[in-house]
Specification:
Low-confidence stretches: 571-590
Number of helices: 35
Bound molecules: flavin-adenine dinucleotide
Strand content: 5-15%
CATH class of the domain at 242-343: Alpha Beta
Structural class: alpha+beta
CATH superfamily of the domain at 242-343: Succinate dehydrogenase/fumarate reductase flavoprotein, catalytic domain
Helix content: 40-55%
Mean pLDDT: 92
Largest sheet: 7 strands, mixed
CATH topology of the domain at 242-343: Flavocytochrome C3, Chain A, domain 1
Length: 860
């Protein structure tokens, strides 16, 4: 049976970009259909691991031009700056839009975005304290009444081909991965948002789905765009990321570095010379692992307890809950063991590198009516915020320019059906996991860097040969059909990756395109994008496209004008036709927990949920709190505050309130309810976020025996600039609290007193505050007296507090690399002083990579 659907705008993939595209197109009044092969509520890269926005250009913290230049440098010049500029200039607006939806971004005590510096230049990383909830927030927005009427979501439906008629995208064909029903969609415009090609290489663990990427991202969109005739670009520029050894989670230097963690080799030396996360950085990482100085580690053992527990709080929850279990299974702890790192398998991903569908600054592909957004589009280093921005752009453009009601091409519909159902005709054929393993082993053996022409040619032979094996695979359920079709997508991506890598006969982008047989970069011949597409004869053809003129000039990169060149074709195999279907049994569970959970999609009122919130069974109450948090009916904030009085669900209710803090309406009644709440730390946090807290209330919080309450009180007092009350907190017995006071207070007398504290970290924090309060002479004096303090943390503070370049330059000989790094960075403010210039030149030969790099930057 075929299910026939129609819409103005079809969005394929309900992750980051797809969700935003669907919301924008529906808000523009269009009839939108969103198809997701998993379930939108928890699908895609966004569902887990979003510790922060990697590339937020926040006014006052960074400039779009600097960001564009940074990304151009990280990509060896091969970028369309117009697309990157969209992310740079629209990212901030998107952050604010997401905040209105309820997503939380880290703020300092004064309510400003707390952007962190992770790379050596530019501050672009904006932490998301509750990053694990973003998908939930988006799903909630999509189901608001104003959108529900225009935005239809079909979960577990997987398109396999975009349908094209007279050169225009007119719809898609696919199937339901639970029932096996064949589905066709007639659409006025199609937006591909299916994420990265994440199951390309085989991870070191050997597990097919234990990949760096979300495993449902098998490269479907790359393949669909290719078969629709769209151009793809930079497919030879692979994604390779730093990982934890033996565990397929990111190493999380982005998270660890702002806390003071850093990458070292087995000798304890920092070795990464490159400034921005790029293929060059990955080349340095791979070379270090392979050298006599390997393996490499994320160094954490030098960090204080509070930094380690904060890191664990992020990495073992927001990042991946299994991560803590993995470390403890090995008997490892960040306090006692630095984390061994490795590199990931290869993948294709515009968001992390550059390989993707070729798009303009509105997400339009080269096929009219077809758009691409997110990781599968070629907008280098676009990450999450870029996926949101381009989802929005594509949604808006498609809503304006759709052409609905075109007839669907019968031949392509039949081919799509054959691509899916050929496997159910042959249930005893080779099982998909075996064929997929074999295919991806060839990817590791012949396509992953270091690349050579011989290996790449062998890869192409293997992938051609494997077309027949893939067609023979057997499936016994709709789920297995999905897996089989995914293998055909992986094969297409592997073929494109090998063919492009063979075509670009030079080396570029560090490890991403390291041709060891042609190790030099050749800007004369290859200052070009390498694009590929399927031509009318079904062949893969290659085109060199010139790099568009830069909007922002970039130091160290000479833009070269060029012209379009057609480079010829390589032949590929095609599919044949027939149809079949199968159904899968759906297991239905029952019970009161399921009863309340099933209410979530019907937008229940508070009155409907109340009986569950007071149910005698705590698991029902907990489920009710989760539905309350997701459905947010009118009055939800009071219900959550009430639930915080119930010990059985207190944590869940507090987490819900924290999660929703951006959408909680501030009112006196809420303030009063929070003031009475027994969950005081959360109550103070929420009062601070809503700007409802008073100095009196926070002062009372300082009396609490619970350190979390006292910390929340200090945060509130810093926001209100209540120095007199903070001075009281400066005598608190807990070191964490005194550190927070030192980080927020402006009273120099208190800072000087804290710089003599018995605790190393308090002394360090007090000295580090010097720049914030204008380098007062009293702190300089203290720093000069502490120059030989045995604790390196204090000497880092000394470097930042001294107001004399000669004394600071003396610290360049310190045995500790972090002290030398702090000294180099402090010297930047006297960079024109001849004595400082000499000192910085000396630092260019330091053994530490960070010291060398910052000296280089300071010298310009
Ligand atoms: C482990 C990890 C950590 C990251 N951390 C950060 C971070 O901290 N900060 C940051 O800025 N960026 C981060 N990123 C990058 C960021 O998450 C991505 O750039 C962004 O989410 C990509 O969005 P997308 O819409 O392209 O893909 P996704 O959000 O992955 O969505 C793709 C969706 O398409 C669906 N799909 C695939 N094929 C089909 C099909 N045939 N039919 C229907 N549906 C289909 C998938 O199921 C999925 O839901 C991280 C990425 C990863 C993998």
């Amino acid at each position: 049976m075929t299910v026939e659907l129609s819409c103005d705008v079809l969005v394929i993939g309900g992750g980051t970009a797809g969700s935003m595209a669907a919301i924008t197109a529906a808000e523009a009044g269009r009839d939108v259909l969103l198809l997701e092969k998993a379930h939108v509520r928890h699908s895609g890269a966004l569902a887990m691991g979003m510790d922060g926005v990697n590339n937020a250009v926040i006014p006052g913290k960074a400039r779009p031009e600097d960001y564009v230049a940074e990304i151009t440098r990280a990509n060896d010049g091969i970028v369309n700056q117009r697309t990157i500029m969209q992310t740079a200039t629209r990212g901030f607006e998107m952050v604010q839009r997401l905040e209105r939806y309820g997503v939380k971004f880290e703020k300092d005590s004064f309510g400003d975005y707390h952007v962190r510096q992770v790379h050596r230049s530019g501050s672009y990383v904006l932490p998301m304290p509750e990053g694990k909830d973003v998908k939930k927030v988006l799903y909630r927005v999509m189901r608001e009444r104003r959108l529900r009427e225009r935005l239809r979501i079909e979960n577990r439906v997987m398109p396999v081909r975009v349908l094209v008629s007279e050169g225009r995208a007119v719809g898609a064909a696919g199937f339901n991965t639970r029932t096996g029903e064949f589905v066709t969609v007639s659409a006025g415009a199609v937006i591909l948002a299916t994420g990265a090609s994440g199951r390309l290489g085989l991870p070191a663990s050997g597990y097919l789905y234990g990949t760096y990427e979300n495993p449902t991202n098998a490269g479907d969109g790359y393949s669909m765009a290719y078969h629709a005739g769209a151009e793809l670009s930079g497919i030879e520029c692979f994604q390779i990321n730093p990982l934890i050894k033996d565990y397929n989670g990111p190493a999380c230097a982005y998270v660890g570095n702002p806390f003071g963690a850093y990458q070292v080799n087995a000798l304890g030396e920092r070795f990464v010379d490159c400034d921005y996360w790029s293929g060059q950085m990955m080349a340095e990482v791979a070379a270090e692992i392979a050298s006599a100085r390997g393996p490499i580690y994320l160094k954490t053992t030098h960090l204080p307890e509070e930094s380690i527990s904060a890191l664990e709080g992020i990495l073992h929850s927001t990042e991946r809950p299994s991560r803590g279990t993995f470390h403890s299974g090995r008997g490892h702890d960040y306090r006692t063991h630095d984390i061994e790192m490795h590199i990931s398998e290869i993948g294709l991903c515009g968001g992390h590198s550059a390989s993707g569908v070729w798009v303009d600054e509105n997400g339009c592909t080269t096929v009219p009516g077809l758009y691409a957004a997110g990781d599968l589009a070629c907008v280098p280093h676009n990450y999450m915020i870029g996926a949101f921005v381009f989802g929005d752009l594509a949604g808006a453009h498609a809503a304006e320019n759709f052409v609905a009601g075109q007839p669907l091409p019968a031949e392509q519909v039949a081919e799509a059906a054959e691509l899916i159902f050929r496997h159910s005709r042959n249930p005893d054929g080779p099982p998909q996991p075996q064929v997929e393993y074999k295919l991806r082993r060839f990817v590791n053996d012949y396509v992953a860097p270091p690349k050579t022409a011989t290996k790449l040619s062998l890869a192409l032979e293997a992938f051609d040969r494997m077309s027949a094996e893939i067609a023979e695979m057997g499936a016994r359920s709709p789920h297995e059909l999905m897996r089989c079709v995914e293998v055909s997508f992986i094969r297409d991506c592997a073929e494109m990756a090998a063919a492009s890598s063979l075509m670009r006969d030079e080396s570029r982008w560090g490890l991403y395109h390291s041709r060891v047989d042609l190790p030099e970069r050749d800007d004369t011949r290859w200052f070009h994008h390498l694009n590929l597409r399927k031509n009318a004869a079904g062949e893969m053809e290659f085109i060199k496209r010139p790099v568009a003129e830069y909007l922002v000039p970039v130091d160290g990169i000479a833009h070269r004008a060029g012209s379009v060149e057609f480079l010829g074709v390589r032949s590929v195999s095609a599919a044949s036709v027939s149809a079949s279907s199968a159904a899968e049994e759906v297991v239905v569970e029952s019970g009161r927990v399921l009863e309340v959970l099933s209410l979530v999609d019907s937008q229940p009122t508070l009155a409907v949920l109340e009986p569950y919130l007071v149910d005698p069974d705590v698991t029902v109450r907990r489920a009710a709190v989760s539905v309350l948090t997701e459905a947010v009916p009118a009055g939800f904030e009071f219900a959550l505050v009430r639930a915080m009085a119930d010990e059985g669900v207190r944590d869940a209710a507090a987490a819900g309130l924290r999660e929703l803090v951006e959408v909680v309406p501030a009112s006196d009644a809420l303030r009063e309810a929070l003031e009475r709440s027994p969950a005081r730390a959360v109550a103070l946090e929420v009062l601070w976020a809503l700007k409802l807290g008073t100095a009196e209330l926070y002062a009372a919080g300082l009396e609490s025996a619970d350190i979390e309450v006292r910390l929340a009180a200090v945060r509130g007092l810093v926001a209100l600039r209540e120095d007199a009350l903070l001075a009281v907190a400066a005598a608190d017995p807990a070191r964490e609290l005194r550190v927070q006071v030192a980080k927020g207070i402006t009273d120099v007398g208190v800072l000087v007193a804290l710089s003599g504290d018995s605790d190393v970290l308090v002394r360090a924090a007090a000295l580090e505050a010097a720049g914030r309060v204008g380098w007062p002479p009293a702190l300089h004096e203290r720093a000069a007296g502490l120059i030989d303090d045995p604790a390196w943390e204090v000497r880092v503070g000394v470097a930042r507090a001294l107001d004399d370049p000669q004394l600071v330059a003396g610290l360049l000989d310190d045995p500790n690399l972090d002290v030398r790094k702090a000294a180099v960075r402090a010297l930047e403010r006297w960079r024109t002083d001849p004595g400082v210039v000499l000192a910085l030149k000396r630092a260019l030969d330091d053994t530490d990579a960070d010291v060398r790099a910052y000296a280089r930057m300071a010298l310009g």
